[in-house]
Amino acid sequence: MATETKSTSGLAFILGAVVVVVGGLVWYIYAGGDVPAQNEAEIQIDLPDGDG
After folding, report:
1. Any residues with CB less than 8 A from the CB of 35 and at least 6 apart, and which?
2. SS3 content of the chain, % helix, strand, coil (to 5)
3. What is the reported pTM?
4. What are the 10-residue block averages of pLDDT along the chain, 52 residues in total?
5. What whole-number distance in Å separates Cα of residue 45 and Cα of residue 50?
């Protein structure tokens, strides 16, 4: 009986993980393929003049 409980728990864990992954993919596609919290940073590097 213990083996049957372990097998059921393992299957439930894997099924839960699959549900989370599929939910994440649906959210990603619904968001237009972009993560809403992600912003592209503008980086500007000013170098000193090389005159001297």
Report:
1. 28
2. 55, 0, 45
3. 0.52
4. 71 94 89 66 82 61
5. 15
